[in-house]
Amino acid sequence: MPLALLALAVGAFGIGTTEFVMMGLLPQVAADLGVSIPSAGHLISAYALGVVVGAPLLAAVTARMERRRVLLWLMGLFILGNGLSALAPDHTWLLGARFLSGLPHGAFFGVGSVVATTLVAPEKRARSVATMLTGLTVANIVGVPVGTLLGQQLGWRATFGAVCLIGAAAVAALFFLVPQEKRAENAAPPVGLRGELAALRSVSVWLVLGTTIVGSGALFSAFSYITPMLTDAAGYAEASVTLVLSLFGVGATIGNLLGGRLADRSPSGTVFAGLGAVTVTLLFFPLLMDTRAGGAVAVLLLGVTAFTLGAPLQLMVMTRAASAPSLASSANQAAFNLANAGGAWIGGLALSAGLGVTSPAPVGSVLAVLGIGVAALSLLADRRERRTGRVVATHLPAPESTPARAE
Predict the structure, then answer these.
(1) Residue 142's closest CA among 7, 21, 309?
(2) Where would you find the membrane-spanning parts of this chain (predicted)?
(3) Of 212, 361, 209, which Cα lies nearest the Cα of 274?
(4) Cβ(368)–Cβ(308) under 8 Å?
(5) Burial level of 178, CB count in 10 A (0-12/13-18/19+)?
(6) Which domains does the chain have, with CATH numbers?
(7) Which mean pLDDT values do the consecutive 10-residue runs of the chain (407 residues) have?
């Protein structure tokens, strides 16, 4: 494994930690700033909004920049946002700081995915993306629990200070381990903003983004309400929920690495298989949640099946917008966050309708089936575009126009 992939994973670890640790810090933040927990919950939404806005915006405005430099600037913005979060004097300032922290999230994963694929042989590109994304999944196993514990013992500001240190470590790793791009003499110049936007004219690209929204919405329809499922249906005490949820991070790490390996053989096949597995898992959720052992198995399986989709969807959108993959790849991260908001809303409708505490899971299975349909349309659109010659490109940049591989 090239050491540069480790540098990308360190950045992903920091981003994953700051994204999810707020959920564990809400009581401390609310008490310290004198706001209600629901009001403090807006800090989660502010970060997600920053991701949705920043992913395409920052990828577009940095389209002509050398990608290693872009990653360094993005991590600098990440450190700034978390530093301001640690110093925020009130709730309003913290909302702004959380929005700022979310801006580089999607662009980092988008540009980082493109860089990751240039560091390995073509048959290992999906695995390289999965390696970077492992930093995100491991953050749910290590970063979030440790960050939550640190916030409980030393105050929530200490957690964001620690995240800044992770960001600084990522900057150092990116600077020393990620090689600069070396372009061949006959290589085309960077496409710039116009070229990046042109890549989004492809119908198949938009359908891959739609697959991410609908398919990942299935995950968040259930996972957004996993705590009441575990306490009210499976019978776990509230104090035990955090430990059980760590199984989701373990499952997500396994699924991510598995999805990367399978996607190197067939990205679309992995997406169809992953969505099918998510459908079955969510259908059996109410049955599994009848016991504590079953609830633990359900959480683990949801992590495995849902995160099998990460690397193949990222690779698919990059390949179908291959002459200008940074914007499309970043947009896929924005789509994932839209899925977070939309899936939680749809799952909440099931609860509001009085269908039972586990009802968001079967509703999520419907979304997964819809995701299969959108993925099928994407595959058909891609084949049609290739037949008519309307594809942007058929491959990602050739090795000679990309950074030299790290040994």
Answers:
(1) 21
(2) 41-63, 70-88, 100-122, 129-150, 156-178, 203-227, 239-258, 270-289, 295-317, 338-357, 363-381
(3) 212
(4) no
(5) buried
(6) 1-180 (1.20.1250.20), 198-393 (1.20.1250.20)
(7) 90 92 83 84 85 86 86 96 95 95 92 90 90 90 87 92 96 92 53 63 89 92 87 86 86 94 93 96 95 94 94 89 76 86 87 90 95 94 79 42 38
The encoded tokens of residue 336 equal 């994932």
Helix (H) or strand (E) holding 311: helix 310-320
Stretch (H or E) spanning 33:
helix 3-33
This prediction has a pTM of: 0.82
Q: If we measure between CA atoms, which residue out of 263, 253, 13, 7 comes closest to residue 127?
A: 263
Angle at which helices 267-283 and 310-320 pack, to 10 degrees?
140
Give CA separation, 403 vs 61, 89, 128, 264, in Å: 21, 43, 14, 21
Is the torsion defined by CA of 131, 401, 103, 216 positive or negative? Answer: negative
Q: Hey, what amino acid is at 302?
A: L
